[in-house]
Write a structure and sequence with these properties.
By secondary structure, this protein is of the alpha+beta class. The protein contains four helices and three strands.
Length: about 130
């Protein structure tokens, strides 16, 4: 089953072409790795596939498909107190039992009251998952 199909995907920014006629598809059950040097358009491609970047060409996502993205780096202001539980309830609230279960799945059980700004980089990425 096809989840995402891109044909002729082109992204331009500041008068520069970042992606030029990219054809790309992802089928259910596939694990896809996007590899390339700095500045080659990896993040731009992901942004376009998620609908966060304006692109031309054809882009079809399976109806109801939810796509997530864990950034390489997320800067959180350390002076703004925000426990993991509050962060995970953005933009909508989730049952505490569901949050506890998901945190346990990523090896962060019991972290609900920890401040986001005190987490290590790896711990933050687990919470972002």
């Amino acid at each position: 089953m096809r989840l995402i199909t891109a044909r002729g995907l082109t992204v331009q920014a500041g008068g520069e072409t970042i992606l030029d006629h990219v054809d790309f598809q992802i089928d259910a059950g596939e694990i896809v790795t996007i590899v390339g040097p700095n500045g080659s358009g990896k993040s731009t491609l992901l942004g376009a596939l998620m609908g966060l970047r304006t692109a031309s060409g054809d882009l079809v996502r399976k109806e109801g498909l939810r796509v997530g993205y864990v950034p390489q780096k997320l800067v959180i202001e350390s002076s703004m107190p925000m426990p993991v539980l509050d962060f995970l309830n953005l933009p909508r609230r989730h049952p505490r039992t569901e949050i506890a279960q998901v945190l346990a799945q990523v090896g962060m059980q019991g972290a609900e009251r920890r401040q986001i700004s005190t987490l290590s980089g790896g711990q933050l990425q687990r919470v972002l998952l």
